[in-house]
Structure formats: C-alpha cells, structure tokens
Amino acid sequence: MSIGLGFPAFWNADANAMVAGKTYEPMEKHGNSMGSSVNPAPREFLRNTAWWGVTEQRGLDPYILYAVALVESAKVTKRVAKPWPWALNRQGRAFIPSSLTEAKDILGGSLAKGVRSIDVGLMQVNVRWQGHRVGKPEDLLDPATNLRVGADILAESIGSAPGNLVLGIGRYHAGFQDEARAYRYGRRVLSVARQIRRLI
Questions:
Q1: Are the C-beta atoms of residues 81 and 15 closer than 8 Å to each other?
Q2: Domains of the chain: which residue ranges?
Q3: Lower Cβ count inside 10 Å, N or C end of the chain?
C-alpha cells in the first residue's frame, strides 16, 4: 500500500494563535468540515499518510511530528494552517513560496551567494547543520525526503534527553546549548500537539 503524504488542515479558529501554542476554541464547537462533531479515534486521522509511516518506523508520536511541522513551516490561509512543503527561512527571514519552482529559485540563489544558514521545507531542516543527510540541498524540497530527515533529527533529539520529552523536542529547534530556549520550544510543540488531538 502506498502512503500519501497528506497535509491535513483542521482548524477554523485563529490559526496564528494555534501555531504560536496558544489556546483557542476547538472546531467541534462549530462543527467540522465533515458535518460532525465526533472526532476519529486517537491517531487514526494520520493513518496511511507519510506522517504515520515515518513515526512508526522511528517510534515517534505522529501528532508531535505534525506539530513540529506546523510550528516550523505553517502557511496560514483564511484562518486555516497547514505545514508548507516549500517554506524557507534564510538567516531569520521567512519565505513562503507558492510553488516548488519559486522555492528552488530562492534556495539556489541563496546557495550561489554562499548562504548556507537556510531552513528548508516542512520540517525546516537546516542546510548548514543537517545538509549532510541528503545528496544536495535541493533534495530537502522534496516533501517525503524532508519529512524523513526531520523525523530522524527529531528522534535523535528526543533520544538525547531520556525521560524529558519537552527538552528532547526542544533540541530539535534549539540545539544543545540553550536549554531555556529548548524548553520553550518543546512546550510550544506539545501544546500544539495536544490541541490537534482534541480536534482530530
């Protein structure tokens, strides 16, 4: 069975607030797009997607992986957010290209100028620090590749902090030198993951 990548978009509250890890009014109070206020069984929403597949292979929670992607690369359109496969962040400046071609142009132009501090794709994989995981930086614009690499990094980060999920998740984004920043990020991701569970 092939596994589709799948980009669920599942809230109609303030999407910017959710990505920031703030609370919001759950969609089921308004009714969801399927016309029902009943949520599927836990974990089922992401079944048969790449999110499910890569997390099962690595012992990760698919909701946490999806929450990391939302925090890292969300594109918000009409109060609905979803991870964006061609999101880029060049030295702190975010770009949300509308197409793969546009993303390749921005990435290629940045690399040609010698800029390697670039976060790429769904999981915002950093070219400078994680580029060795792919054949060439452009490979990170492939959503399946980006998700696999991001899941590997997340699994390693969580594994580096046994018994401390918040810190482990936080190291995905903040590394090992700034624990305060890592804790903030880890709490933010877990807040988003909890809110996703309430919706799906």
A1: yes
A2: 15-199
A3: N
> HSE on the CB side for 118, CA within 13 Å?
25
In terms of pLDDT, which residue wins out, 12 or 120?
120
- Separation CA 98–CA 92 (nearest Å): 19
Three-class SS state of 77:
strand
Q: Which residue has the higher pLDDT, 20 or 25?
A: 20
Token reading at 153: 């990094």
**Helices (H) then strands (E): counts for the chain:** 8, 6
Q: Which CATH architecture has domain 15-199?
A: Orthogonal Bundle (1.10)
User: CA-based Rg of the chain, rounded to a whole angstrom?
Assistant: 16
Report the C-alpha gap between 37 and 93 in whole angstroms.
39
Alpha helices, H only, the chain:
15-19, 50-58, 62-73, 100-112, 127-130, 143-159, 165-174, 179-199
pTM assigned to the model: 0.80
